[in-house]
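Protocol step 4 of 6: structure prediction from sequence.
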Amino acid sequence: MNHPDKGETAFGVYVHWPFCMAKCPYCDFNSHVRHEQVDQPRFAAAFAREMATMRERSGQRTVSSIFLGGGTPSLMQPETVASVLDEIARKWHVPDDIEITLEANPTSVEADRFRGYRAAGVNRVSLGVQALNDPDLRRLGRMHNVDEALAAIRLAREIFPRLSFDLIYARPDQTIEAWREELARAISYAADHLSLYQLTIEEGTPFYNLWKAGKLVTPDGDHAAALYTETQDVTARHGLPAYEISNHAVPGAESQHNLVYWRYGEYVGVGPGAHGRFIENGTRIVTVTERHPESWVQQVETNGHGVVEEEILTHEQEGDEFLLMGLRLVEGIDLARYERLTGHSVKEKRVVSLAEQGLIEYIGNSRIRTTPEGAIVLNAVIADLAA
């Protein structure tokens, strides 16, 4: 079962729309609430301007996937989305059949707008559903209820060739039985892809403050691990096996854009707070743009880009990132590629020791992957291999 390492040629374009209707209490993403109208033509012009700079730096490339993330990209007018996609096609070579994903919230779903996105070229939508029961949706600070979520799923299935939606589990007081039922219900609505994330408490969020004060109790490690194992079993039984720690798909329907990240491909990041990683003059560089939306726009208008941080990665750092991303995948990693990136092989002793502990396994001659047991302690496995 030897996979070609597509990561070496993949090139994605990520565009960040930073605005939301409300800030969820668990979210530490770069998202902002604005009570007055956002000047969308101004932002569209700034996206185009920053793309021109990124195109100069990356050179002519063939795009393998486009992802409009956020924030809430479904707050964009279809005209804004069309202008962004047209601009990408002007800057790089965009084949007709590539995956173009837009993230949407069930609250900002209107049939006309969805049809407008489809006409603009979007062919995959990712819906932030998060839970299929109303009390938990309220607790998670979501603006939609279950009925609205299901209506959004139905509409998306009707209009877009491909659909994914997200759920959060390991929520306070969640039992394995309740999650099993909710997950089975979710799968009955899913088209071909589900993203299932454990609730993590991120510093700087309202949930963190509640958790710190003892007012929010999340499942302990054992219960969270049991919920994770249940998730793997239920999805595999229903034909949506995991292909990555938190992502499940009908074989062949994996998120092509996320595979660019996990297979350690290249991508440019455009928009407030976007990250990019691409090869420039033979070295892999990291770019990070200004997070604050209005400051980002001003910087782009003045300088042609909003990049505020940049780093040239050493071969060693590339190797570490390659392990960090690739070992999340069920297909695992190609050790020969690790060697090409770093100039040396992974320490055989460590691989053997982790294999003896049942945490990783060989696939064929030069690939390794984590076992289900290893996936639960993934960070420890990566730290061991990278040491």
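Step 5 (inspection) to follow. The domain at 319-386 is CATH 1.10.10.10 (Arc Repressor Mutant, subunit A).
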